[in-house]
Amino acid sequence: MAIERSNLLSMMKLSIKVLIQSSLSLGRTLDSEYPPLQQFFVVLEHCLKHGLKAKKSFISQNKSIWGPLELVEKLCPESVNIATSARDLPGIKTGLGRARAWLHLALMQKKVADYMKTLLDRKDLLSEFYDSGALMMEEEGAVMGGLLVGLNVIDANLCIKGEDLDSQVGVIDFSLYLKDPANSETPKDDAKMTAILDQKHYIEELNRHLSGTVTDLQAKMDSLEKTNSKLVEELTAATDRINSLREEQEQLRKENESILQSSQKKEEAALQDSQVELETYKQTRQGLDEMYNVVWKQYKEEKHIRQELERELELQVGLKQEMEVAMKLLEKDTHEKQDTLAALRLQLDQVKTLNLQMFHKAQVDTRGYTCSFSCMSTQTELTMSFSVHRLGLENELRAEREQRQSLQKALQREQDNSIELRTQLQQLQGLHTELQDLKLEKQQLQQTCEQQEQALQEMGLHLSQSKLKMEDFKEVNKALKGHAWLKDDEATQCKQCQKEFSISRRKHHCRNCGDIYCNSCSSNELALPSYPRPVRVCDMCHSLLLQRSSSTGS
Predict the structure, then answer these.
(1) CB-based contacts of 115, cutoff 8 Å, min separation 6
(2) Looking at the DSSP assignment, which residues form a beta bridge with residue 62?
(3) Phi, psi (5° rounding) for residue 267?
C-alpha cells in the first residue's frame, strides 16, 4: 500500500508539472480535449479510487468516488452549485460520471485544492468510504492537496454537456512523462516559468484576499449604518422617555405628598381605633375572667354538696333497707303473738264456759258445794293465772304496736328524707345542666376572645405594613428629593469601574440613585416602590436595598 501511494503521488507530481508547463505554451487556456489535462484527470481519479471501499449489492461490487465528493457539499456551502449541476447534467447516469463532471467544474472554478483540503481535514467522515491504508487517509493525501494548489494558475474552459463521462476508460499514458532529457527545456526556462507561475499565483491570492476584505468592510459598513440608525432611534426614544419620566417624576412627587398626608391621617385614625379596641378588649377580658372564677367556685361548691348528698342518700338507702328487714321480722312476730293470743282466748272462753257450767252445777247441787268450792278455787287460780298471762300478752302486744307505730313513723321520716334527697338530686341535675350551659357560654366567650385577639394581631400586622409602606414612601420621597437624574451628556465614563463609554459599552441609568453605569456594573434588577416592574439598579444600590429588605423582613 505504501509503494502504491508513493507511485500515485509521484505520478500526480509529474502530471501537474507537465500540465502547467504545457499550458504556458498555449496561453494557459485549456479545453477538454487537451491530452495532459485528460491525463491529469485520470491520475486524480486513480488517487481518489485508491483504498476505496466497495459498495456490495446483489449483482456486483461497485466502487464510486462520487460518495466522498458529495461530502464537500455539506462541508463547503460554496460547492452546492457544482454538486447540483453535476447531478442535473443530462446523459450522466452513473456516480463515476457525476464525479468526473464535478472535478471538471471545480477545476474551472480554481477550487479543487480548497475542496480537497476541506475533505482531507475530516478523516472521521472519510473513514466510512476509505480503508485505513488509503492515500486519502495518509500523509500523501495532504501532500496531494498541496500539489493541487498549483492548478490555480491554469485557466480551463471545458464543455461537459457533449462528453460521455460515464464510459471513459481511465488509463495513464506514461509517454507524456517519459521524454528524452535532450529535448527537455533548460533550467533557465524552468526558472522563468516558475517565477511567472508564482507571480500569477500571488496576484490571484492577493485579488482573492482583497475581495474578501472588501466584502468584510462592506458588511461592517452595513452593520455600522444599521447600528447608527438604531442608536439615533434609541436616542430619540431615550429623550422622549426622559421627558416622560420627568413628567412622571413631578406627578409622583405630587402623589407622594398626597399619599403621605392621607397615610399619616389613616395611621393616626388606625392607632386611635386600635387603642380603643385594645382597652375594650382588656375590660371584657377582665369581666370574663371574674365571671369564670365565680362560676368555677360555684361549680366546686355544688360538686362538693352533691358528693355529700350522694353519701347521705347511700346511708339513708342502707338504713331504709335495714328498717324494711326489721319491719318484716316484727310483722312475723306480731302474727305469731296474735295466733298465740287467739289460742289463749279460746282457752279462756272454754274455761269460762266450764266455770258457768260448774256454777250452775253448784247452784243445782248444793251438796257438792265443798267439792265444787275446792274446784272453784283451783279454777279461779287457773283463771287468775290465765288472766295474768293474758295481761302480759296484751302488754307485749301493746308494746309491739307502739314499736310498730314508731317504726312506721321512722319509715315515714325516711321516705320524707328520700323525697327530699330526690328533690335535691333533681336540683343538682338542674344545676349540672346550668353548669354545662355556663361551660358552653365560657367556650363561646373564649372563642370570641380568640377572635378578638386574632383581629388585634391582624390589625397589628396592618399597622406594621402601613408603617413599612410609610417608610418606603419616605425613602422614595428622599430618593426623589435627594438624588438627581444625571443626564447622558454629563457622564463620559462609568461611575463604578471608571471605564469610558463607547458604541460597544452603552450607558445605563440606575433607577434608584440616578447615576450612569455600564452594563456589567448595572446588570441587577429589583422591584422598587415607584415602579410597577423590576428595574435596573447598580451594584451598590442592589446591595443596600437587599440589606434593607433583609433587616425589615427580620
Answers:
(1) 72, 76, 79, 106
(2) 55
(3) -65, -45
What are the boundaries of each domain within the chain?
A: 2-184, 254-478, 486-553
User: Are 2-184 and 254-478 in the same CATH fold?
Assistant: no
Place of cell 333533681: 426
Q: In whole angstroms, give the CA distance from residue 480 to residue 528.
A: 13
**Under CATH, which architecture does the 486-553 domain have?**
2-Layer Sandwich (3.30)
Bridge partners, residue 516, by sequence: 509
Q: Which band of pLDDT confidence, cut at 50, 70 and 90, is reported for residue 369?
A: low
Rounded distance between C-alpha atoms, residue 463 and residue 278, angstroms? 14
- Rounded Cα gap, residues 3 and 21, in angstroms: 27
Q: What is the enclosing helix (H) or strand (E) of 398?
A: helix 369-482
pLDDT tens, 175-192?
Answer: 666 654 444 445 665 666
Q: How far apart are CA 449 and CA 59, in angstroms?
A: 100
SS (H, E, C) 440-470: HHHHHHHHHHHHHHHHHHHHHHHHHHHHHHH
CATH of domain 254-478: 1.10.287
pTM of the prediction?
A: 0.37
- For residue 512, count other CB atoms closer than 10 A to its CB: 23
Do 543 and 513 touch, CB atoms closer than 8 A?
no
Task: State phi, psi for 269 to the nearest 5 degrees.
Answer: -65, -40
pLDDT (mean) for 469-480:
61
Q: What is the DSSP string of 303-362?
A: HHHHHHHHHHHHHHHHHHHHHHHHHHHHHHHHHHHHHHHHHHHHHHHHHHHHHHHHHHHH
Please compute the mean of the pLDDT values over residues 458-474 and round it to a whole number.
73
| CATH architecture, domain 2-184 | Up-down Bundle (1.20)
Q: Phi first, then psi: what are they for 29, rounded to 5°?
A: -115, 110
**Which H/E stretch holds residue 524?**
strand 524-526
Alpha-carbon distance of 380 to 374, in angstroms, equals 10
- What are φ and ψ of residue 34, in 5° steps? -75, 120
Tell me which DSSP letter residue 535 carries.
E
CB 485 within 8 A of CB 514: yes
Phi and psi at 534, nearest 5°, equal -65, 135
Q: CA 344, CA 57: separation in Å to the nearest integer?
A: 152
HSE-CB for 269 with a 13 A CA cutoff: 6
Task: Give just the sign of the alpha carbon dihedral 403, 409, 415, 421.
Answer: negative
Q: Which of 270, 18, 263 is nearest to 150 (CA)?
A: 18
Coil vs helix vs strand at 105: helix
Measured distance between the N- and C-terminal CA atoms of the chain, rounded to whole angstroms: 81
Q: How many CB atoms lie within 10 A of CB 211?
A: 10
What's residue 56's pLDDT? 54
Q: Does pLDDT of 397 surpass 50?
A: yes
Q: Would you give the DSSP letter of residue 94?
A: S
CA triple 134-140-144, angle to 5 deg? 110
